[in-house]
Amino acid sequence: MSNAIRNKLTITATILLMGCSNLSTAEYQPAMEKALEALLVAERALENASHDKGGHRAAALRHVRAAIEDTRRGIRYDNRH
């Protein structure tokens, strides 16, 4: 197994284990999960878009990434309170 694959598996396992620690208090949040999924799709689309947008693609990508992080923080917050 290559180091890159091993690293990805380690990161994935760590994230899953961290998530499992909150399962007893975690509440399913369908709206936030759906929003997160849409933001991740938007991020991929922007990453794949051509770069000739006068800096607006890059700005949109920064905003989407900030929204992804805020959405994740909101989910974590709700799971703790």
TrEMBL record:
Could you identify this protein by its name? DUF4398 domain-containing protein
Originating species: Thiolapillus brandeum
Q: Quick one: signal sequence residues?
A: 1-26
Lineage, top ranks: Bacteria, Pseudomonadati, Pseudomonadota, Gammaproteobacteria, Chromatiales
List keywords of the entry alphabetically.
Answer: Signal
Record has Signal as a keyword: yes
Per the record, the domain of life is: Bacteria
